[in-house]
Specification:
By secondary structure, this protein is mainly α. 31% of the residues are buried. It has twelve helices and no strands. The chain has one domain.
């Protein structure tokens, strides 16, 4: 009887702990949303302003001035830019999340992993809220909805979310001990933008450079989003590099976090 009571109590404590952690994660994410757009009237508009503005500039420069011959070039750009801003925003915010919350980490005991998770969840919420806008542009361009969207959209959201959690945790942990990582990530994201086939199709990349792009998990993800919206094609074998790197980043990020977490207070 005693053993049964112990197991029941442990299960109850575990559920309570999970519930508390989830509530804390949501609270921090909602706090970030309020702080980011406090005092603004058009908060939702600002979420979509950056991809739309950059998309307009690139469409004019490349589609109208240089006359790149790509059908539905506006949708071609937007279907890549919306996921890209989700990726870049999550990585930038997650990288510095432990350092920017150093005082909180020293004073309050709570699961530290919540912080990079909240950074990714915050940017994911923005992407989810703006996703109907992207779909609206696709439909206005005359592209019919596809049944592949039903499985493809949730699958790509899940894959990119896990990739961001892995990379975000890894970079946030390393940034505690190596502060130059923050500026390095900003430069790397600028370079990655042009190495992710956002403004051009992967088919135009010469064969000798494709192995390099295969090491970039964003390129196959962007291509998968684009194929899904433009051609109604669900992900295929070309996305395997993103799957491998997602699994590796999750494993490495969680390993380093568990290994170095106890040293955070001294480094911060």
């Amino acid at each position: 009887m005693a053993a049964t009571i112990t197991r029941t109590t442990s299960a109850t404590d575990l559920l309570r702990s999970v519930s508390t952690t989830w509530d804390l994660l949501l609270a921090i994410t909602l706090r970030d949303i309020r702080v980011r757009y406090q005092g603004t009237v058009l908060s939702f508009i600002w979420w979509i302003a950056r991809p739309l503005t950059l998309g307009t500039v690139l469409y004019f420069a490349l589609g109208k001035v240089l006359r790149i011959d790509i059908p539905n070039y506006s949708v071609f750009l937007l279907s890549a830019l919306f996921p890209w801003f989700w990726f870049a925003g999550s990585i930038q915010q997650a990288t510095g999340i432990f350092v920017s919350n150093g005082g909180l980490l020293k004073k309050v005991r709570f699961p530290k992993l919540i912080l990079p998770l909240s950074a990714v969840l915050f940017n994911t919420s923005q992407f989810l809220l703006t996703l109907p806008i992207l779909i609206g542009f696709v439909l206005v361009a005359g592209i019919s909805p596809s049944t592949a969207w039903i499985l493809g959209i949730p699958a790509l959201i899940a894959l990119q979310f896990l990739l961001l959690v892995g990379l975000g945790t890894l970079l946030a942990t390393l940034n505690v001990f190596f502060r130059d990582l923050g500026p390095m990530v900003e430069v790397a994201l600028l370079l990655l933008f042009y190495l992710s086939a956002i403004i051009f199709p992967l088919d135009l990349v010469p064969d000798e450079f494709r192995p390099v792009l295969a090491l970039n998990p964003v390129a196959p993800l962007i291509d998968a989003w684009r194929n899904l919206f433009l051609h109604g094609e669900f992900v295929d074998g070309a996305i395997w590099p993103a799957l491998v790197i997602t699994a590796a980043s999750l494993a490495l990020g969680l390993y380093l976090f568990n290994k170095l977490e106890r040293h955070f207070a001294d480094a911060l």
